[in-house]
Amino acid sequence: MECSPLIHNAPPEGQLLPQEAAAFALLKELGMDYDRVSGEPADTMEKCAAVSQVLGVPICKNLFLCNRQKTQFYLLLMGPDKPFYTKDLSHQIGSARLSFAPEDSLWELLRCTPGSATVLGLMNDQAHRVRLLMEREVYEAEFLSCHPCICTSSLKLKTADVLGKFLPHTGHEVTVVEL
Fold first, then answer.
1. What is the pLDDT of residues 58-79, one digit of tens each?
2. Which spans in the chain are helix H?
3. What single-letter DSSP state applies at residue 171?
4. What pLDDT, on the 0 to 100 scale, is given for residue 176?
5. Which pTM does this prediction carry?
């Protein structure tokens, strides 16, 4: 996978999809610094490995989940090499029968396409229908990596900024989980 060298600013506005432009605008509004790489879609963890090398941090695995009835939605941020067992997570959060949420729910709630699920998508969840779950190692890491609502760019953000600026702005709280 080929990607750009490290870039310290947003791409030119005319080149952005609306959800990506909104993510960069909010980062600017909140005064959140970031490093960025761009390139072909990094929509699998294998492709994200090359991006991780340029950013200097592991790319988070972002899983968009729901309960069986599709009435409760979860965004799980976890390390790239961690195995995911629905039974273990279900027990911790008190939700039975977790599965991957439908693609249309990902778009409706977070304005993200498959392969682009991201914590930044929570800016679009004004009804607070998505519960944010962070694996402890991701929560405690100095930096967090994510997409700006599209998987052709990847960002390196300070975790403290995500927790102290971004989440208070969106009104979402984080639940720390052990995986």
1. 888 999 999 989 999 999 999 9
2. 18-29, 45-55, 86-93, 103-110, 136-140, 159-161, 167-170
3. T
4. 97
5. 0.93
